[in-house]
Amino acid sequence: MFIMINRNRLFCIFTIFIMSIILFFAVNNNVIKGSFTRHAANKQQQFLILIHIDEKTLYLFENDKCIKKYPIASGKPGWPSPIGEWKIVEKSQWGKGFGGRWLGLNVRWGNYGIHGTKNEASIGRSASHGCIRMYNRDIKELYDLVPLGTAVVIRNGPFGPFGMGFRNLKPGDRGADVLAVQERLKQLGYFHGYESGIYEDDLKNAVFQFQKDHNLKVKVSISTPDYNAMGYSEFE
Predict the structure, then answer these.
(1) Residues acting as catalytic residues
(2) Surface-to-core class of residue 43, CB atoms within 10 Å of its CB (0-12 exposed, 13-18 middle, 19+ buried)
(3) Does residue 236 lie in a domain region?
(4) Regarding beta strands 126-128 and 65-75, do their DSSP bridges make them parallel or antiparallel, or are they unpaired?
(5) How many other C-beta atoms lie within 10 A of the C-beta of residue 199?
(6) In this structure, are 27 and 126 located in the same domain?
(7) Do 140 and 167 have their domain in common?
(8) How far apart are CA 224 and CA 212, in angstroms?
(9) Which of the chain's ends, N or C, has fewer CB atoms near its CB within 10 Å?
(10) Does residue 55 lie in a domain region?
């Protein structure tokens, strides 16, 4: 009887031991699988497009490493390329005038994108209506590499949304500098419209009131004294 009890206990202990081992490996196998899945997700390609207007160059980064560098054409005077941080929200295969490829950006104040051109001699110059032009062979390569949602950063000079310096803004103008003025005047309680990046009547009325309140010359244009009164400086 004593031997039978010990054998039963031994069998129970052995069974518990085996089940513990099975449970241990099952749990750890799931942990390993989960870790591998998360690691694989973290290893997914992450692209960033950085465009320097002043350099007339587009850089493509993959996981923080620059893997491509392309020459571009940018907006001509009066038609600036959209400075700021955007995303690719459209990919289309347009006609020959656009080199067969179009990468549309989510810019508030117009239809801007990266595309090819039938005038490849313009690459390296300020020649477009604000879009970024590339050699046709280059846009086809870039198009195949980057997915929808890719971040696009466009820079031009040391003054952020003001690029190389202040523009004299007038009604009808559009751009990152107009957007910056709208945002600042909204912060100051003068502008109550939608920050569209377009100088329209609602912004003009806000500018008039701001100029009156700050003893500035009341005019439709926005010039250096107005920028300075808003707290902007070309020496920031």
Answers:
(1) 115, 131
(2) exposed
(3) no
(4) parallel
(5) 24
(6) no
(7) no
(8) 16
(9) N
(10) yes
Q: Read off the tokens for 221.
A: 């244009």
Q: Specify whether 134 is located in the same domain as 166.
A: no
User: What residue numbers bound the domain in which 215 lies?
Assistant: 160-229
In-domain check, residue 89: yes
**CB-based contacts of 116: which residues, under 8 Å, 6+ apart?**
98, 99, 100, 101, 133, 134, 135, 136, 138, 139, 140
Q: Residue-wise pLDDT tens for the chain (236 aa)?
A: 444 445 555 555 555 555 555 555 554 555 434 444 444 444 567 999 999 999 999 999 999 999 999 999 999 988 999 999 999 999 999 877 788 999 999 999 999 999 999 999 999 999 999 999 999 999 999 999 999 999 999 999 899 999 989 999 999 999 999 999 999 999 999 999 999 999 999 999 999 999 999 999 999 999 999 999 999 998 65
Strands 151-155, 84-92: pairing is antiparallel
Closest by alpha carbon to 82, among 56, 110, 47?
110
The region, left, alpha or beta by phi > 0 then psi within -120 to 50, assigned to residue 232 is: beta
pTM: 0.78
CATH number assigned to the domain comprising residue 87: 2.40.440.10
